[in-house]
Amino acid sequence: MMRRYRIGRITGYWTNFVPPIQGGKFKLLTSGSPSPATNYDGGGATSSSTACPPSPRHPCHETARQDGNIPLFDESSSEACYSDDRTPDGMSYIDIQTRKEIRLDLAKYPAVDVQTQHMIVEKFRALHKYVKRQGLYRCNYWAYAVEMVRISLLFGGFIFFLRKAQHIISGFCLAFFWQQLAFIAHDAGHLAITHNMHIDTLIGIFVADFLGGLSITWWKRNHNVHHIITNAPEHDPDIEHMPFFAISHRLLSNLRSTYYDRAMKYDAVARFFIPLQAWLYYPIMGVARFNLYAMSWDHLIAQRGPRKGAVWWHWWAEMVGQIFFWWWFGYGVLYCTIPTNMDRFVFILVCHAVSAILHIQITLSHFAMSTADLGPQESFPQRMLRTTMDVDCPQWLDFFHGGLQFQVTHHLFPRMPRHNLREASKLVQEFCAEVGIPYVTYGFASGNGQVVGRLANISRQAAMLAKCQRSLAKNSKIH
Known about the structure:
- By secondary structure, the chain is mostly helical.
- Among the domains are: about 15-25 and about 35-50, no CATH class; about 140-375, no CATH class.
- The protein is built from 18 helices and four strands.
- The strands form two sheets. A two-stranded antiparallel ribbon has the order 1-2.
- Helix 9 (about 275-285) packs across helix 13 (about 355-365) and helix 9 packs across helix 18.
- The radius of gyration is 24 Å and the shape is globular.
């Protein structure tokens, strides 16, 4: 759609502006005044809103260890709680941690100057053209036939064991049925099945709303932003889970969410949960589906999705889907089929707790990755590779991960059908080696270890911040 608004072509390098929301300043273009670029105050190739301006020889690199690793949490630092006037200051501690994270990324990834990033973009465009020529955007419908057989067997197992009053086994089957459906809903939400908006939306509504009780338009609204600005604490709703989780120290500073248009307060509730988040990660994932139900209804009741134009019917179709889901699941299964309240409780607990596997798979590729902002000059492919990791698994286990194990490739080519991601990931690894961007991959177990480690790291930083704040309060009373 953007092509219809194009009014010209830039020759040479394009210099991104710092967005106004990040502090960029602009002057009005008046008659006889210089071009908008020269009127821009605070942007250009050598300026950004980050604490460490992008430069291949910036002083931030000087403190990097030889292995390229800089610890994000330095409890022994004598500067940790002090501002320039030597007064203990929690916000100064947050700033110090932010600069450390930026230095770490500047040491590990290619420089974010215009020339380097332009080279990366040009090579990525060449890769994209090759991917299209290889037919990797064409959907393998036979693979979906196999998916349908697997999903039908899971649903049949759910019904069979439900009628046999084997509620625990039935709950397991339903949980894995929902997990496999979520992968198809994800494909449809990205228009990766038929590449037709209306057909893929119908598939998504049937799979997500009618069979899973979740709003596909809520997910698309949320997920589109996640793909645009991945792992940005103030923008990406997929990592904004206060007061229960904080995967960035910046979330400890009452950061304002541009998606939810409110401050994510680091209040008393957050101060209780964040120090325990590494221990609560799996239990909270076990009840995460209930939050998705609530978010779906909030989205539909508030009518946040589009209501006009070619997609006017989406809201109506989803409302019918939601009513149908709670009729067959809430009334037909829970009320009419399961005889006692205790059996209902066990069944609900099992099918939602086992669904935690899906939520772990969703968060696995991002929670442990960088949340730093390297400025507006960083290219799209570098940011996606810096904020996303893959999960290594044998090919026969691809069905279990449903394409989420190739999140790096998926983020580079969001509309690529998931059954082609394994082949495309080999090309992405070659691209990474050519441009010097680290390609990050872990096994499922070690990836979980990385996530829990990140959560524990932020918990320690929260404890350090609390120490700074107590010290500040104590010194204020003394003075």
